[in-house]
Amino acid sequence: MFKAPRGTSDTLPDEQPYWRYIQNKALEVCRLYGYSCISTPAFEDAGLFARGVGEGTDIVNKEMYVFKDRSDNELALRPEGTASVCRSYIEHGMDNLPQPVKLFYFADIFRYERPQAGRYRQHHQFGCEAIGDASPMLDAEVIHMALGFFTSLGLVNFSLQLNSIGCRKCRPGHLQKLKDYYAPLAPQLCGDCQVRLDKNPLRLLDCKKPGCQAAADEAPRSSDYLCDECGQHFTSLQNYLSALGVKYALNHRLVRGLDYYTRTVFEIQPAEGGSQSALGGGGRYDDLIATIGGRPTPAIGFATGMERIVLNLVSQSVNVPAAEKPAVFIACMGRDACVQSVKLAAALREAGTAVISSSGERSLKAQLRHANAAGAKYTAIIGEDEVKAGVVMLRNMQTSEQQQMPPDELLKLAGSVQ
Ligand code: AMP
Question: Is this model's pTM higher than 0.90 or not?
Answer without folding.
Answer: yes
